[in-house]
Specification:
alpha/beta, 5-stranded parallel β-sheet
Length: 185
Amino acid sequence: MATLHFMGGKPGAGKSTLARELGRTLPAIVFCEDEWLERLGFELRSFEDYRAAARRCSDVMESLVRDLLRMGVSVVLDVPANTVNARVWARSLFEAAGADHVLHWLDGADDQCLANVRRRNEEKPAGVYWGQVSDETFRRVLPYMVPPVPEEGFNVVRRKVATYVVATSISSELAGRRPSERPAK
């Protein structure tokens, strides 16, 4: 059965990193809002600009995601599911297609996520950087973050930001080593 994987968490929590990892390890198509914002050339000067552009992207993604799920193709949707309304929208996608779902929620401390945002602002990695996110913008979106609750009825996998980042760096560091060169557990 096709599965819709979707993400929630603060800016800098690692949603896009996780989405890309899922895309590499699962047989799934990845839709990354950040890539769409960048490639479609939206001018994002404010949080309101972002919201309007993101809505336009979601409007286009919606039918594509539903059709893929109906065809039995799993989808990783890297669009923030940070609010109840955003999760209602995600639910409409997988329910209309008769698909399964997993909500990946990334928990992280504000200072840790903000440090990741600052690093992303400096490095401007392709596909996950659509523009500068200021400390002010980061703090402005925090009140919108509403973690999922059991009453919403989602299959939730919770991850800690530090755990995911450490696990990713350790596995990539060890990937090229022979078993005899790996540190003892």
